[in-house]
Amino acid sequence: MNQDAATLSLLSAPALGDGLLTLVLAHNLHLQGRSSVLYHTQLVELRTWFPWARIEPLPEDAALKDLAAGDAPLFIASTALVSGGVTAGPGRLVFTKACWDREHGYLASLRTHAERAFDLAWTTDACGLVQPEDAPEATHPRRVVLHPFSARPNKDWSI
Q1: What pLDDT shows up at residue 158?
Q2: Angle between helices 16-31 and 106-118 (to 10 degrees)
């Protein structure tokens, strides 16, 4: 897990949606020419859809603790990862549910906190998804598929 000191490490909760929301932060950093690496095991499989991003699997426990305990730039949004005593500081944002503004939502709250923590000028709410050239053609290009399931039953949509 070698990376230069200016590279911002992004650790999100392991669910796919959490990773995609963290990619919005990574995309804003990228658009400003700043380096980041998102550690997310599920999104590793989708790397070709984010050619501008560096996405790596979540490190093993010891490496993860070293990363969290260091003073390198860090974004962490996972209750499980925060439970190890990770604290915020200059260039470090520990983004827990206590940070969220429920009225305006997760992304607006992330924007507010990330702009301050990383001296970031937020320019987009897009995650930077790019369809690879070798992706299969859409059979029904106007069809939208909504997947109503989630990591836990209490987050599923009502049917």
Answers
A1: 55
A2: 40
